[in-house]
Specification:
With 124 residues, the protein is mainly alpha-helical. The protein has 2 domains: 15-79, Orthogonal Bundle (Arc Repressor Mutant, subunit A), CATH 1.10.10.10; 82-123, no CATH class. The protein is 61% helix and 6% strand. The protein has 5 helices and 3 strands; from the N terminus they run αβααββαα. The chain has helices spanning 15-29, 41-48, 52-65, 81-102, 107-123; strands at residues 37-38, 68-70, 76-78. A 3-stranded antiparallel sheet has the order 1-3-2. A hairpin with a 5-residue loop joins strand 2 and strand 3 (76-78). The longest helix has 22 residues, at 81-102. It comes from Streptomyces sp. 900116325. Residues 13-81 form the HTH gntR-type domain. Keywords: DNA-binding, Transcription, Transcription regulation. It holds the Pfam family GntR.
Length: 124
């Protein structure tokens, strides 16, 4: 299986973020199945025409997000990303709801602010 990753040097998004987003989307869609072994940082960097540090930064972000896992010398693999992403998002939502309640916001106002934040994050 060949990874279908395209980095647009003219995009307003940093190359590491483009790489992180694309791998994350491929993992969530199932195109990259759980257990799929990703290329080495250096090999992937060479293939994509990026600096090794750029790929390493994307891999670190993906690992932090729970999308991938590194197994030492055995390599880097797609983890069960959907479950991890859902758990992390739910935890962040709970934390936000608790903070909004402590601040005295009404439920409607807290939901409105959360919706605004989501809209901005997804639409720019």
């Amino acid at each position: 299986m060949t990874l279908k990753i395209a980095i647009d040097p003219d995009a307003g998004t940093a190359p590491y973020e483009q790489l992180r987003t694309q791998i994350s989307e491929l993992a969530r869609s199932g195109e990259l199945p759980v257990g799929y072994r990703l290329p080495t940082v250096r090999g992937f960097a060479e293939e994509l025409g990026l600096a090794a540090n750029t790929v390493a930064k994307a891999y670190r972000a993906l690992e932090s997000d729970g999308v991938i896992e590194t197994r030492g010398r055995n390599g880097t693999f797609i983890a069960a990303a959907g479950d991890t992403a859902d758990r992390k998002a739910a935890a962040a939502a709970r934390e936000y709801a608790e903070q909004a309640r402590r601040l005295g916001l009404s439920r409607a106002r807290a939901a409105s602010l959360a919706e605004d934040a989501v809209r901005v994050a997804y639409e720019g």
